[in-house]
Design brief:
The chain is mainly α. The chain has helices spanning 2-9, 14-17, 29-35, 41-47, 61-73, 76-80; strands at 26-27, 56-57.
């Protein structure tokens, strides 16, 4: 529950999601890696067979930043639970 709470605290509200401009954050692969350096995007894209990555829309950058921090600060056993 604590992981979900931390992620929710860094998510935009339903009202904020209604604004399409506020949900449009196109990024190239390098920008995505800079935003979330602890997530292996190269492995992820290779695993889903996406060899050529153009722009990716990151609808909630703050959520991804928080998730990235949780990847290194939360034990694997907590994620499994």
């Amino acid at each position: 529950m604590s992981i979900e709470t931390k992620l929710a605290q860094n998510s935009v509200t339903r009202v904020q999601r209604r604004n399409p401009e506020a949900n449009y954050h196109p990024m190239g692969k390098a920008e995505l890696i800079a935003l979330t350096p602890d997530f292996d995007w190269t492995l992820y894209f290779r695993t889903i067979n996406l060899t050529e990555v153009g722009k990716v829309n990151v609808g909630q950058p703050d959520f991804f930043k928080a998730a990235d921090k949780l990847l290194t600060s939360t034990p694997v056993e907590d994620w499994k639970t």
